UniProtKB/TrEMBL annotation:
Organism, scientific name: Halobacillus karajensis
UniProt-recorded name of the protein: Fatty acid-binding protein
Gene3D superfamilies in the cross-refs: 3.30.1180.10, 3.40.50.10170
PANTHER family, alphabetized: DEGV DOMAIN-CONTAINING PROTEIN DR_1986-RELATED (PTHR33434), DEGV DOMAIN-CONTAINING PROTEIN YITS (PTHR33434:SF3)
Described purpose of this protein according to its UniProt entry: May bind long-chain fatty acids, such as palmitate, and may play a role in lipid transport or fatty acid metabolism.
GO molecular function annotation: lipid binding
InterPro entries listed in its UniProt record: DegV, DegV_C, DegV_domain_contain
Keywords of the record: Lipid-binding
Top-level taxon of origin: Bacteria
Amino acid sequence: MHVQVLCDSASDLNHDVLERQSVRSLPLKVILNGEEYEDGIGMAPSDVYSRMRNGQAPKTAQVSPQAFRDMFTHYAEKGQPFIYFALSSELSGTYQTAKMVEQEVKEAYENAQFDVIDTKAASLGYGLVVWRASELAKEGGSYKDILELGQYHAAHMEHIFTVDDLEYLQRGGRVSRTAAFVGGLLKIKPLLHMEEGKLIPLEKIRGSKKVLKRMLEVMDERGKDLKNQRMAISHGDDQERAEKLAEMIKEKYGTEEIHIDFVGATIGAHAGPGTIALFFLNDTYK
């Protein structure tokens, strides 16, 4: 029996990719003006960003224990092995909730074969991990090989990103209020990355035009086999700049596959409109 790959909506994989790869995704929740929506289902990312530009401040909520219970039990009852790759535990309590439910379901179904994996990744960095694991699953790969491949990609996935307005990160406690105010005055654009699943400031760049160039330089320093690996760029309702970055990468490295999509509401609610994020591997899987 093939292995089923599961994820949550913070992977930012769109419906077409999920369907094509036979991945099941559990939606996180977005809360706006007291109304709750399913991330990517009840409200499109573009609508969330539009509301944010108009001053609304969305909140997010993790996948419920019951949603995990229903999904995990569904496959355990069928005797189908599955792996749930989760959004970084440093950014959401979703992973911890899934681990709690994992224990419950394994006690009820002793022969169930499944794992809950903390990818320490987010947005399309997380999505690329899920995508590659699901490809191997569709090819009929073994449970052990799919688990190993997914964990390797998660451990070697780079996240390099910038935000258009530090205010959104300040609201989420990612930068101080003073830093956000000064950054706005000086037109400073922060460059951030992920370390062990946490968002970490990397450096500050004055002027938005220099940011994309610097992102390429960081990728050049850290990436490996940049021509042949699948990369991804996610954006906070800024398709034009995302495509510009993709063009720069293709021109420099001849990269054949760069997937571009929205930063979904789960991450976008904290990063804000104008976010640009680049994802690539710093090593290639043997």
